[in-house]
TrEMBL record:
<protein>
    <recommendedName>
        <fullName>Ras-associating domain-containing protein</fullName>
    </recommendedName>
</protein>
<dbReference type="Pfam" id="PF25985">
    <property type="entry name" value="Ubiquitin_USP47_N"/>
</dbReference>
């Protein structure tokens, strides 16, 4: 992403908890302009971790323990969503797959869908 001269940058650290099976979580660290849309950031993160953007949820952890869920369809900027762009600020995100995506990937969910389709 290209940013205008002097535009504030956000340090973003994303932990992918969707594959957290052994206690470790892959991490993606990047600097993005504060004017980046949530949609573009979600797509960038999804691409990095080889996910489909519509199947993930990004949660921004704010300093006072609050959390903000970023919507893939949002045209809001990262900065207006609560991402900090001042010096030395670190923005922590959690990536997890949506429950519907997890359910679709589950073998038991597929069996239930097949039973429903067969009228069993």
């Amino acid at each position: 992403m290209v940013c205008a001269l002097g535009e504030s940058q956000a340090l973003c650290i994303v932990r992918d908890l969707s594959t957290n099976q052994d206690g470790s979580a892959p991490i993606y660290e990047c600097h993005v302009p504060g004017s980046t849309t949530v949609r573009d950031f979600v797509q960038q993160v999804a691409s990095h971790f080889s996910h489909e953007p519509q199947n993930i949820e990004l949660i921004l952890s704010l300093p006072k323990g609050e959390e903000v869920k970023l919507k893939e369809s949002s045209d809001e900027t990262l900065q207006s969503s609560g991402v900090r762009t001042d010096n030395n600020s670190r923005n922590s995100f959690i990536l997890q797959t949506l429950k519907t995506a997890r359910a679709r990937a589950s073998p038991r969910a597929k069996e239930l869908d097949e039973e429903l389709n067969l009228g069993a």
